[in-house]
Design a protein that fits this description.
The chain has twelve helices and two strands, in the order H-H-H-H-H-H-H-E-E-H-H-H-H-H. The chain has about 325 residues and is mainly alpha-helical. It has one domain.
């Protein structure tokens, strides 16, 4: 449709789309901060001011952890993409942060896939979507592995009352789905996003052990950074808890929050609800834990998305004639 329009009109619509994405992202951030039924933003700011919970040293360290978090994510994306096309760290930063802003209000950050693909010519886009999926699956694998261990110790430590019949029924459903998926994956004609399973296996195999190992390690380092950041905030707010017991709660929280589908802008609400359940069991004040969850969201998603908005506004699509 856009190709049929005059060049000037095409450019106008393209600028309008970019402005709409940025305005939409900022509007949703504004709504989240000002219309949170669980935590009033003015009370949140007053709470921070009255309790003097942040020194300049603490604030700088928290921002440093957020920068480190995104450094690992961007570096992972650079390594994955470089398996098919060499890109610089600067290019990887533009793609990762720009895609974050563009996907901020899409369900489960699904817009991230399309946004990153637009940075490449059409000949690369299917593979870029697949690389993004692989990167996200690596991060999810780390969350799941740590979360299962953490949840196990959480249940043992705090004698959580579990509806075992419902839990077993849920596990049976998961087992059946897993078996069906495994059988389906064995069929070579089965396809995902236009790729046959045989091609997918070949694609992953061709990534190379170094690429897969490095990406998985960076996913692990990123997880350790934002988990420690949560623990550090607990200390700032005066919550005295050992690192082990804090990590048991934090890893359980991230596991439970990650398996609940959500629109990304409401991710903070879901994590807040799960965090309240987990941490009130550990006897942490509800308002305090909601404040920490909101701060984590501001530090790791709002601030990077503000930088990402610049990359959205300056984005220029790749021409198909240049690979």
């Amino acid at each position: 449709m856009f190709r049929a329009l005059p060049y000037k009109t095409n450019q106008f619509f393209f600028v309008l789309i970019k402005l709409s994405i940025v305005i939409g992202a900022f509007y949703f951030i504004y709504l989240k901060l000002t219309t949170n039924s669980d935590l009033d933003f003015n009370e949140f700011l007053y709470f921070l001011s009255e309790n003097h919970v942040f020194s300049l040293k603490n604030a700088l360290f928290l921002v440093f952890l957020s920068v480190l978090n995104w450094f690992f994510e961007i570096k992972k994306w650079q390594i994955l993409v470089s398996s098919i096309k060499k890109i610089s760290f600067s290019e990887a930063s533009k793609q990762s942060l720009g895609a974050l802003t563009a996907s901020l209000f899409t369900p489960n950050r699904i817009g991230d896939y399309g946004a990153k693909a637009l940075y490449f010519t059409s000949s690369y886009r299917k593979r870029i979507v697949l690389l993004n999926l692989i990167g996200n699956l690596m991060q999810m694998s780390i969350t799941t592995l740590f979360g299962i261990v953490g949840l196990y110790f959480f249940i043992l430590e705090y004698n959580v009352d579990i509806a075992y019949f419902k839990a077993s029924r849920f596990l049976i459903i998961i087992a059946i789905v897993s078996i069906i998926s495994f059988v389906g994956l064995k069929q070579k004609r089965f396809k995902i996003k236009g790729f046959s399973i045989e091609k997918l296996r070949h694609f992953i195999k061709n990534l190379g052990l170094n690429t897969i190992t490095s990406s998985f390690l960076l996913s692990l380092l990123r997880y350790l950074v934002f988990s420690f950041q949560f623990y550090f905030l607990l200390g700032i707010f005066g919550i005295e808890v050992s690192y082990f017991h804090a990590m048991v709660a934090i890893t359980s929280m991230y596991l439970l929050a990650s398996i609940i589908p959500s629109i990304f802008i409401f991710d903070v609400i879901i994590k807040g609800s799960v965090a309240v359940y987990i941490f009130t069991t550990v006897h942490v004040n509800e308002f305090t834990i909601l404040s920490i969850v909101l701060l984590m969201w501001i530090l790791n998603f709002v601030l990077p998305s503000i930088l990402g908005s610049y990359y959205v506004l300056t984005f220029t699509p790749q021409k198909n004639k240049t690979a």
